[in-house]
Each structure stands twice: as C-alpha cells, then as structure tokens.
Amino acid sequence: MEIRNVKKEDITEIRNIYSKSYIDEESGRPKDEDVDYFTKKVEDYVDQTKESLGSDYYYLVAENNTKVIGVIGTRKPHVRLLPLAKTDNSVELYSLFVLEKNLGVGKSLVNKIIEICRQKGYSEMMVLSANRWKESWPFYDKLGFERAGTITELSGRLSQVWTREL
Ligand SMILES: CC(C)(COP(=O)(O)OP(=O)(O)OC[C@H]1O[C@@H](n2cnc3c(N)ncnc32)[C@H](O)[C@@H]1OP(=O)(O)O)[C@@H](O)C(=O)NCCC(=O)NCCS
C-alpha cells in the first residue's frame, strides 16, 4: 500500500468511496447530494481553486495495486472547533474514508497525514465527527486522540470533537 498525494485521475474512485459511505438509511442508496459535495471538495483541491486554498484543503489517498482504497484530508479548523482547541495552531482532520474496513488503511492514512502536518509546523490536530459516524468514534480514541467536547447540531444530534497534540 502506498500513501500519496491525490491526483485528478483519482476523482472517480474517490467518488466511488464516498458513494459507498454516504448511504441513505431509508432507501439504501447513495446520498448524491453528500457524495457530490465531498467529491467537489477534492476536485477543488486538485484544481487549487481560491476557495480550496483559502481553507487550506489538503488530501492524500491510499493506493493498492493501482486502486484507490482510502482518502483523508485536512483543512483549517472549522470555526465551530475553535472553542475546543488547545492551541492557536491546529489543523482539522477531514473526510477520512476507506473502501474496506479493518485492514489498517485508516491508521496508515492518519499516521501519514500527522507526519506531514508536523512537518508543516502544526502543533494540534482536531477531528469533528457527526453522530452518523458514531461507530468509528473508538477508532480516534485508539489512535491517541482525546475527546475535547461535543457540538450540538441544528438537528439536535451531538457531534464529537477530538484533539491530539502533534
Ligand atoms: C473509521 C475508518 C476510517 C477506520 O479505518 P480502518 O481502515 O477501518 O481502521 P484500521 O484498520 O486502520 O484500524 C486501526 C485500529 O483501530 C481499530 N478500529 C478501527 N475501527 C474501529 C472501530 N470502529 N471501533 C473500534 N476500533 C476500531 C482497529 O481494530 C485497529 O486496531 P489495532 O491497531 O489494534 O489493530 C473506517 O472504519 C471507515 O471508513 N468508516 C466509515 C467512514 C467513517 O466513519 N469515517 C469517519 C468519519 S469522521
């Protein structure tokens, strides 16, 4: 497995990973709105649009035998996270998804992006995870992230926030 920078040619496979992850519970079908939204973020990053540069988006993919099997990003922390930050030099881990779970791909992606963020000079990494991803929350605990608090969404559901010193 190789962890590398995202390329334009990866977009279709990244869309496929998002399509398998953003599923409407009632219909069992991909939530196109979410899939489009998150794929566009990666496209904007590849194209280095003004919006992407402004929020400092950055993406890596995991590749195995020429197939993209995972994606991870970072960006400037969303403003909602700032009250829970421990430093004024944090980066937000954003949009982590793997094609197949429990093969070590998620951990490899997180470790690589941590290494890069350290090199970039960040001293803290934050994560925000919505209630719908609750099953994955112990993954962040396991990788050394500390629960910093919760955020109440407009829906009334709680999102969890973590922080980790880099
Ligand atoms: C969360 C996610 C990225 C984890 O990636 P993964 O490749 O399945 O995780 P890994 O195989 O690298 O696991 C690393 C370690 O965490 C543990 N772990 C992984 N998922 C876990 C879970 N849901 N609960 C508890 N432990 C978990 C593994 O057992 C492993 O432990 P080990 O190092 O002792 O062997 C993946 O499950 C996923 O894509 N989930 C759906 C999307 C999602 O929830 N994304 C996060 C949105 S915020």
TrEMBL record:
Instruction: Spell out the InterPro entries in the cross-references.
Output: Acyl_CoA_acyltransferase, GNAT_dom, NAT_camello-type
Cite the N-acetyltransferase domain residue spans from the record.
1-166
Query: Which top-level group of life is the source organism from?
Result: Bacteria
Gene Ontology molecular functions: N-acetyltransferase activity
SUPFAM superfamilies xrefs: Acyl-CoA N-acyltransferases (Nat)
The alphabetized UniProt keywords are: Transferase
The record, for PROSITE patterns, names: GNAT
Q: What is this protein called?
A: N-acetyltransferase domain-containing protein
